[in-house]
Specification:
Layout: E1 14-18, E2 24-32, E3 38-45, H1 48-63, H2 76-87, H3 94-107, H4 109-112, H5 122-134, H6 139-158, H7 182-192, H8 199-207, H9 211-215, E4 222-223, E5 228-231, E6 233-238, E7 246-247, E8 251-252, E9 269-274, E10 282-285, H10 288-308, H11 330-344, H12 353-364, H13 369-376, H14 381-387, H15 392-406
Antiparallel strand pairs: 1-2, 2-3, 4-5, 5-10, 6-9, 7-8
Protein name: Putative integrase
Domain Core-binding (CB): 74-157
Region (Disordered): 1-22
């Protein structure tokens, strides 16, 4: 049996000495830095025997490949800043990156930023989640923060800044989302038919598209003959940045606090972007009644464009637009949704709850989970489990199927058993 390859003596040297402070110190060579210099870890103990044990433990972790790279043991704030600015930008969309940055800088770094990665524990995160809830934040926001932290710390593990990810063990608070009922959906659609862009809300409830995806649909994406819709892009609102020169001490030279106030602002506004880079472009089947609504909407939009004349942005070819044919602002789209809920007498639901609703309705209709994942654009089963809620209809159907399988001769619900007269 071949043994582990022995490292050169220079790569395993440990030096020990007693310092002027009376404590015992050691510097253990743990490997080589990127610049070729040896990476040496300093440790200190009150006695020589304690130091010897600590050195042996470090050397074992080095020799077995379990050592976590802790040259500087960065704080959580330092690591998140590095992850958000240097690792993520090349792998996720602008909107995702912007959301992650906001969540970490607002809800994590002020409280946990100074904590060293080596000192981060599951309990540290759980206590922080509780503080966020006590401060009035929703469970859905806390869950979102937890997912971003888990992703960022997974990267720290991959790069050997951490031995294990405490966010994989920490339990976020329970987050139950109640999808809209069939009655609520019908009430919403009844009100939506009296509003401009009425088919927009049929698309939300029937297909469960993300908000940006729905607003990014072009007429060319819809094949009315085949009854399919191709999801290829999304509408996003980007934050404006300062275009003026910036003085390091005094801030932007224009004097404005926000990038939107800068006369030379750049990079912001409403944009059409490609859908998630990690997800393949997907084509989904459209129910015939929805195709009928979309045909009506296309005729109404064409008439609106004729009335607007040259001011109509025909080149965009978007299915859901503002009064000038331009891409719809997501904030306005959100306000329209809230207005419809109030007019329909429906509880105050998030627009994203329409996506939960669509997934649940598909399951209630007996569509298998893999097909639901393809329709919704999910790539991980864990995501599907967050959205697919076990509503009463599903529980009743599951009980009926079990009864049919185990007692095939027994009358099912709806049939009268006359054995007792």
């Amino acid at each position: 049996m071949k043994g582990r390859r022995r490292l050169p003596a220079g790569d395993t040297t440990s030096s020990k000495y007693r310092g002027a402070d009376g404590r015992w110190h050691a510097r253990v060579t743990m490997g080589t830095r990127l610049d070729g210099r040896p990476e040496r870890k300093h440790i200190s103990r009150s006695s020589k025997s304690e130091l010897d044990r600590a050195v042996r433990a470090l050397e074992r972790s080095r020799d077995t490949g379990q050592y976590s790279w802790t040259e500087s043991d960065p704080t959580l704030g330092q690591w998140l800043e590095h992850w958000l600015e240097n690792v993520l930008p090349s792998t996720v969309r602008w909107k995702t990156l912007s959301t992650y940055r906001s969540q970490m800088r607002v809800h994590v770094v002020p409280a946990l930023g100074p904590v060293r990665l080596s000192q981060l524990r599951p309990e540290t995160l759980e206590q922080h989640y509780r503080r966020l809830l006590d401060a009035g934040h929703s469970a859905s926001l806390v869950h979102a923060v937890h997912r971003v932290l888990r992703s960022g710390l997974n990267e720290a593990v991959r790069r050997q800044r951490l031995v294990s990810n405490p966010a994989m063990v920490a339990r976020p608070p329970r987050h139950e989302v109640t999808p809209l009922t069939k009655g609520e959906c019908l009430a919403i659609l009844a009100v939506a038919r009296t509003r401009r862009n009425s088919a927009r809300w049929s698309v939300a409830l029937a297909l469960g598209l993300r908000q940006g995806e729905a607003l990014g649909i072009k007429w060319a994406d819809i094949d009315f003959e085949a009854g399919t819709l191709r999801i290829q892009r999304a509408v996003q609102r980007h934050t404006w940045e300062h275009g003026c020169s910036t003085n390091q001490n005094c801030g932007p030279n224009c004097g404005g606090k926000r990038g939107a106030d800068c006369p030379a602002r750049r990079g912001g506004g409403i944009r059409l972007v490609e859908t998630k880079t990690s997800a393949p472009k997907r084509s989904i089947a459209v129910p015939p009644p929805l195709l009928h609504e979309l045909r009506i909407h296309r005729r109404e939009q064409a008439q609106e464009g004729l009335r607007a004349g040259p001011a109509w942005a025909r080149e965009l070819d978007l299915a859901f637009t503002d009064e000038a044919g331009r891409a719809m602002d997501s904030a306005r789209d959100w306000r329209d949704w809230k207005s419809i809920l109030r007019a329909a007498g429906v509880r105050n639901a998030r627009l994203h709850d329409a996506r939960h609703t669509a997934a649940t309705l598909l399951l209630v209709q007996g569509v298998d989970i893999r097909t639901v994942m393809a329709i919704m654009g999910w790539t991980e089963m864990a995501t599907a489990q967050r959205y697919a809620h076990a509503v009463d209809d599903l529980r009743v159907e599951a009980a009926r199927q079990i009864g049919t399988a185990l007692w095939p001769e027994t009358p099912q619900a709806g049939h009268h058993d006359t054995a007792d007269g």
